[in-house]
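Section 5: illustrative case.
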């Protein structure tokens, strides 16, 4: 932590065995974890400085102070600076490049406080946190000729905190700073700085100060939390879960960022025994990244856990496992309305906003039977699902296993699967087991009107499918299944394509194909139509439309298929013909196909959409405009 800061003018030299060498100069910036930067100019009110700089805006008198300084992102902090002793004067005659080419803007370079005596000049950096480490970066500069140096001496000053001292020559300086790092505030939240003029120096100056705050080193004896998982819990919340160590601690800190690489800011502190947290009241379609660490008495910390990303739920699909249309739950619920058997398929189910999703319910291995007499009801639709849904269910007997495949899922999505069952049957246990991959959950259906169990954070396989296995508990002769809830959201693990790399026409091996056998997309440019199908050489009789157009976040695509398609790829390209999104869909039936997409993460501009199937057939190109 003592190495935080900017290192400029570093020289690297490579020398060969024959004595030849070459050198290069470069700069390195070392940031602390969760670093924040506050910039302060030692100026007077008549010489203001531009944001994000803060100014003393004061004469250099004892007691002059500024508080609640803003960081370089414009956020208010508790940081401040107070002059303990007066300086000899405040001036605006420092360095000026004429074109802001110095290390700081000219308006900052020119302002400074000056001291000429042998007495120390002292100030305090105030309002600091005991939970943070600090680095102080000092700048001083003034026009100083060779004649000045001969007549008066140098412009070197010493800057001291505790036992650490660094020196800086202010003569004609427009690029150099010095720093003190790894600093901790005293019990009052202050760091005291002393500036002195050494023998042989005419003045000591201070033009600008950077206050860097960052996380200190973790306490080696503390074991960090592990297995942090973040998953959408609703359309405005994300739920976190983590595993705690056996350490004795006083709590956990939860940190959040909009980027996997940070910077992170403290979101909440929870108790020592808590291993879950719900981040609520979030904006629609939002995505965040989290990390958690242990804290002991507010001044000892473990290292951070893994970083976990999560998105709020963007859409929900509800399916009633009913056996007949009579008593079915109205749309936007999706109803079986049938005595289902192997091969049954409920296609292109709608979400709770009545938007088609392209998601399908497939019976791979059917249930033992159904029942529409022993369901439960609240009488006022106060249960976890509506009464009409509760009244009927499919069930398995001991030894029978049902398998349901959900396909048409986005390969870039993450899904929660919620299972509900309820029955008045009281002659024997009615515990059902639901399994997806290695994740298993169970539910007691007897008189249940309030509980729904979930398997969360499920990623579909390469075909966009998830297989659900359903069977009875070990001691249950029967297991019921009444409804299925699917919550969809984008995966935080999917990195948007790099639009500086290959365009749509790129890629592929010598055969012109790709890993899954779909044709390489080779559009011709320019595509000139906006808001409709183009008439370029790639046009076809397979129509594709999208709405709303223009759009902001969500788009619904609609396409008429003359025949079924086993495997299709949707390509979205920007105005330069470079891929920004790809989706794969399987087992698309003939007729009207619809799919809702969230495209809120795209930049403003024009985008082109086309769908290819494995036979090389393609839709007409459709163009959309994103307006914000």
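Designed sequence:
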């Amino acid at each position: 932590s003592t190495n935080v800061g900017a290192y400029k003018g570093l020289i690297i030299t490579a020398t060969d065995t024959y004595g030849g060498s070459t050198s290069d100069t470069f700069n390195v910036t070392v940031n602390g974890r969760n670093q924040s930067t506050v910039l302060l100019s030692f100026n007077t009110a008549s010489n203001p400085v531009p944001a994000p700089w803060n100014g003393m805006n004061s004469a250099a008198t004892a007691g002059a102070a500024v508080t609640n300084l803003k960081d370089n992102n414009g956020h208010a902090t508790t940081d401040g600076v107070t002059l303990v002793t007066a300086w000899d004067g405040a001036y605006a005659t420092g360095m000026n490049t004429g074109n802001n080419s110095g290390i700081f803007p000219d308006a900052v370079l020119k302002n400074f406080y000056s001291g000429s005596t042998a007495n120390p000049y002292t100030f305090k950096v105030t309002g600091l946190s005991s939970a943070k480490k600090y680095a102080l970066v000092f700048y001083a500069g003034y026009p100083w000729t060779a004649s000045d140096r001969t007549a008066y001496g140098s412009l070197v000053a010493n800057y001291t905190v505790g036992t650490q001292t660094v020196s800086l020559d202010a003569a004609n300086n427009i690029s150099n700073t010095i720093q003190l790092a790894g600093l901790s505030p005293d019990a009052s939240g202050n760091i005291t700085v002393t500036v002195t003029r050494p023998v042989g120096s005419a003045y000591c100056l201070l033009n600008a100060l950077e206050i860097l705050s960052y996380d200190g080193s973790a306490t080696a004896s503390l074991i960090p939390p592990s297995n942090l998982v973040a998953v959408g819990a609703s359309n405005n919340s994300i739920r976190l879960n983590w595993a705690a160590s056996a350490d004795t601690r006083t709590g956990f800190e939860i940190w959040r960022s909009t980027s996997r690489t940070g910077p992170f800011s403290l979101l909440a502190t929870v108790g020592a025994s808590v291993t879950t947290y719900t981040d609520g009241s979030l904006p629609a379609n939002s995505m965040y990244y989290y990390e958690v660490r242990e804290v002991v008495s507010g001044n000892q910390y473990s290292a951070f856990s893994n970083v976990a990303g999560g998105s709020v739920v963007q859409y929900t699909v509800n399916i009633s496992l009913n056996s007949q249309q009579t008593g079915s739950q109205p749309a936007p619920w999706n109803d079986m309305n049938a005595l289902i058997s192997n091969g049954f398929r409920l296609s292109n189910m709608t979400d709770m906003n009545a938007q088609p999703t392209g998601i399908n319910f497939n019976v791979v291995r059917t249930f033992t039977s159904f029942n529409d007499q022993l369901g439960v009801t609240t009488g006022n639709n106060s249960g976890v699902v509506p009464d009409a849904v509760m009244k009927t269910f499919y069930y398995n007997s001991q030894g029978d296993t049902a398998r349901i495949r959900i396909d048409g899922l986005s390969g870039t999505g993450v899904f929660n699967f919620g299972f509900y069952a309820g029955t008045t049957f009281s002659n024997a246990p009615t515990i059902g087991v639901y399994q997806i991959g290695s994740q298993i959950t169970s539910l007691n259906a007897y008189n249940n009107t309030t509980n729904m169990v979930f398997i969360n954070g499920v990623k579909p396989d390469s075909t966009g499918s998830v297989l659900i296995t359903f069977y009875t508990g070990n001691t249950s002769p029967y297991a019921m299944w009444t409804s299925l809830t699917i919550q969809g959201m984008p995966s935080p693990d999917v990195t948007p394509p790099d639009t500086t790399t290959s365009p749509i026409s790129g890629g592929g091996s010598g055969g012109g194909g790709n890993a899954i056998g779909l044709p390489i997309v080779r559009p011709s440019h320019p595509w000139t139509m906006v808001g409709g199908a183009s008439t370029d050489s790639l046009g076809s009789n397979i129509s594709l439309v999208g709405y709303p157009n223009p759009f902001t976040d969500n788009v619904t695509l609609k396409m008429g298929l003359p025949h079924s398609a086993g495997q299709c790829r949707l390509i979205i390209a920007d105005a330069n013909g470079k891929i920004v999104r790809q989706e794969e869909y399987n087992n698309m039936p003939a007729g009207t196909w619809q799919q809702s997409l969230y495209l809120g993460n795209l930049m403003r501009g024009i985008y082109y959409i086309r769908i290819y199937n494995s036979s090389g057939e393609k839709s007409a190109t459709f163009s959309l405009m994103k307006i914000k």
